[in-house]
Queue: 2 jobs
Job 1
Amino acid sequence: MAVPTLDTAVVDELVAICGEENVLTGRSALFNRARVPAPFPLHRWEQFTPQAVVLPTSTEQVSAVVKLANRARVPVVPRAGATGLSDGAVPIRHGILVDVKRMDKILEIDVDDRTVTVQPGINMMKLSQRLQPLGFIYPDDPASYPCSLVGGRIGTSGFSLISGRFGHTRDLVISFEIVLPTGDVIRVGDGGGRKIRKSSSGYQLKHLFMGHQGTLGIVTEATLELVTRPEAEFSAFFSYPSYLDAWRATGEFARSGLATLAGVVLFDEQKVAYLRRDDEAWIPAPDWVKSITAVAMYGQKDEVRAGAKQIMRIAKANGSTYAGDEVSQGDWWSRHDRYATPLHGRTRSGQAVLMSWHCEDAAINHSQLPAVREKWHWIVDDLRRRFDTFDDWGMFSYTNGAFRPGGDYLTEIDVGIWEQRYDEEMWAAWVDAKREIARVAIEHGGSMSSCHGSCREGEVDLLPLELGGGFDVMKKVKRVLDPNNVMNPGKYLLDQAYEEEA
Amino acid sequence: MLGFRLSAQRPPAEHRRISDVVISRYEHVYEVDPRLMQEHVRQQSLPEWDFHRIIENRVEHLVWMQQHFADSVISGDDLIRELEQEGD
């Protein structure tokens, strides 16, 4: 299927707005911006390519591009780091792709009011490197920390691994500027002040535009928390003879009430079995080790030390076995590696095969984790029985609550996928499995995504089920803010908003 | 042209079996059993110096990542010893 060509007059106008060097129409530029790391139907790549890519450098340019898209009725799709595991940045209706990577400047560092204001194309690791000499850090810490960008984090309302101490993206972003689908520019926060953390003035619009997956506009500037860099880190990994032992211990660590507690992670039995074939930390673990928990703490040295000592007391009381400093420290430091390393899948006969990593995530309460785990593994096992192109890589559960962790968990099942083998039958089976994984999460009182977003083929069908009447409000908001349905159309079932109007 | 020749290097160390699916030739360094890399993913011949360079770079990266987030690391082993001395 050939990609439809964009009207030459539209391309000329894009060049006039952004400059010739910032408008790309070559095949590689378009094809490289079609997909994200989420499972992608490689056999239908051309269905998802944009018709033109623009790399703006200012809010004014973004606004002008969006106004042009409205006038020409051409879809416009924002894209930041393109590391998302939902399809927010995938241009499923072609159109103009706005890549914000050249908007990567730090605009202001305000030590007195403890804020840093940036453009959306800056990466968190690079930002923290700039802040380090001043004694600060920006601790929004997803697995994609070295490669995802601030704009994308707002677009997905991202999850941070150390949110128990520092909060998630929604907590670390104080306010931001956004170009609406009509091209108008507004600033949203908690009330009106750019650097105000709490206000009771008007609707809380920051949260409306947090996690919109590019359907409500393009973020062009953000004011972020400037967080004092921790003096000390403590990470401890503990071993257990069964999942249920580790699950109970996870709850006890999370209930400790320690202010320095940044997160607790639970590895299930299939995850440990997977790590035993490829991960240097767990290959030599004794056979009795079936499940693992990890605890991470950050803060000033004195408070982390006192808190860590308390964690060790809890661990002793609940029968946890400490894995030692080498494993504990090294494994925590490698928490971002899944985005950077090729991973070995296995066929049913045990042969190594390069598979893409994917994780389906949901937010699940602690009490429901064992039941959800059983159902999710059944779904993925069934997929593997039918297709020798999927591999069950086990489950992680991470404390999900900001500042008060432990009541619910970002729970993910990691699936290896041999993507080169995709055909329509395999793709359809995968989409069905994703939908069933999401359905289990909802049936157990959870949300079908804590981290990635839920706008992908499969689980998106269940969005009205999860949100109820809230989904009708979503459609009304979309129609009011985007009257021509040009802003990332086709996502989140929001086309329904316009069908009902017609 | 001067350059490293794979055939000129010393033979790699003998491996020992760690599990049904893993072997090891150097302390704390594990490799997928070559028998599992026959059909879809073939093992490459890698000079030993390059093999060690990759491992050392990874360790350097992990230490850098820790120092990026905090100045120091609290040792769990030390805390356990401390608690035992305190009779806790």
Job 2
Amino acid sequence: MEQRVAEPIATPEVQPTVWRTQSATILFVVMVVGLIVAPFFTYPLFLMQAMCFALFACAFNLLIGYVGLLSFGHALYFGWASYLSAYSAKAWGFTPELAILTGTATGAVLGLLAGSLAIRRQGIYFAMITLALAQMMFFFALQAKFTGGEDGIQAVPRGHLFGLIDLSKEMNMYIVVLVIFLAGFLFIYRIIHSPFGEVLKAIRENETRAISLGYKTDRYKLVAFVLSATLAGAAGGTKAIVLQLASLTDVNWPMSGEVVLMTLVGGLGTIFGPVLGSFIILVMQYKLAAVGEWVLVIQGVIFVACVLLFRRGIVGELANKLKIRL
Amino acid sequence: MKKTLGLAALAAVLACSTAYAQQVNVKIGVLSDMSSLYADIGGPGSVAAAKLAVADFQKTNPNVKVELISGDHQNKPDVGSQVANQWFDVDKVDVIVDVPNSGVALAVSEIARAKNKLFIVSGAAASTLTGAKCNPNTVHWTYDTWMLANGTGKAMVKTGGDTWFFLTADYAFGHALEADTTGVVEKNGGKVVGKVRVPLNTNDFSSFLLQAQSSKAKVIGLANAGGDTINSIKQSAEFGIVKGGQKLAGLLVFSSDVNALGLPTAQGLSLTETWYWDMNDANRAWTKRWNAERNAAGKYPTMIHAGVYSGILHYLKARAALGAGEFDGKAVTDKMKSMPTDDVLFGKGTIRPDGRKIHPAYLFEVKAPSESKHPGDFYTLKATIPADEAFRPLKEGGCPMVSG
């Protein structure tokens, strides 16, 4: 995949009507209300998992959509965070908030290590280095004792938040996940719209020019990489507590591919795109569970259709049609 | 007059419906791998087996209404766990059956315990399901890793294969299988002369097979699974290992694998199973019905399919014995354990307190193409391991429910 994919959404002359300038805020409110009402209509566990994946996809999008770096090894941070989070909750008796923080820190540390190596190269080499490191750590997870190999870590206790709130009650857990997801989402929104985010976008557009303007682009890229890995870690850690298990699926390379698909379907470089994309992909996985092997075929067809028909993704195309920024 | 007749009819209907309030409603979920590497050993074949079990049971118990649903866990523990949760909570499923893939099975077992439902394992091999991770809501039906290692190891040594060389897949599962089998071989007076650790998903086994060949061990144990097993068996045939006088022992091979490999490649392979379709008339008759239900020519049921049938049948018997009322997973499991099992496929058997179903196991050797008389005629029976020796002794499993 070339950097061309990460084309910015052209924002032509915008008529300054309220709903155009405030479109992102409006959509955000709609999303929050939707997520608050949803558990009364849909199975909450499914929504919680979808939010974890949405946060994961948003974190991935921060890197590819706004810095133009295609990491093909994001499962590394997601999966290892879920292992460490699950292990700390089960073996060391950490409370859920500490376990999730452990997972987040795992993502950050691994992101720093992998990122400082990977950002030295560009394009396909960058992607290959991230993939190679992720595969290395996959085999480590397969062999290590504490990960339980292909059995994974099961029966992770959800515990009590701050020692007080019982998370085994579905609604309590739901609120915690919702808060984590929204916090992560707003954090990413803040990053993108900060001066730091502007520099990232400048690097995406033309790295040489950013260097000539005096920016140390490697540092910016590394910080963005670590931020993305950290948020992916938060998503993985939360998922381990929600589903009460951590398994090889989360560190294996198809997971790295799945997050690319989620982001692409929703809309690369749009803030809402990855959220929509991950919900679509997850709904497909569960609703189509009965049709067996066709899940993968349908996923493939959607991927091809996306690339051929709407390269900006669903949210990206929508934003372009309505000439707004989402 | 008409009115009274109508009323009488209504009363009669009402009376009938109160009589039928005793009707027991059961919902069974078959959770399996429908599309990927375990689809042949479980998958759609398990659904067909479940349908046969329900049909057979309803012949004698028409008052038990059974609904059957199935799903694909895609070999992902989180998908399996999501489906299991939803089945138990939303779809009112009482029991989940099959679940090949130990990772998914351990997750489902935990959910069944937490929600006080029931889980009948046929497809997964992990012996921890009735060992350290046992629980009062899980019954492990067909086979497990300990039984495979024990069956093959013991029977091979007793029939003369007393020196072993292991080809071991280099991860936890392979190591466990190798360690278990080594223990059995040495306990029965055999000797392990060497072993080699092979990376997972290897395509080229030649250097490992050469080591195995030059070790002069009488038996080469394949402590691997899935694609690795298939590849190592194929390449052993190319190296003429069996023709050279050494024996190949598959520690996790199913009749569907033998069917896929073909007899020319698989001949001479030793393996342990608890059920084989061509063993007696009852099995053959059942296979005919299974084939009609499964609607796939050239396929033969595996022991996992037989286990699904047998497990569901026993569950339904227990359920009917308990009568209508709120579903209580623990009570149903206790009932299942207290009743002796009896069906056409596995014969008489029992379920131990740790959830382990007990029945005999058989050591088979794959026939040469010239010995095979009809399609699906795969095996020669080499030894029968009696029920009381086939599975891990109750005390050695480390199941907290048993040791108290």
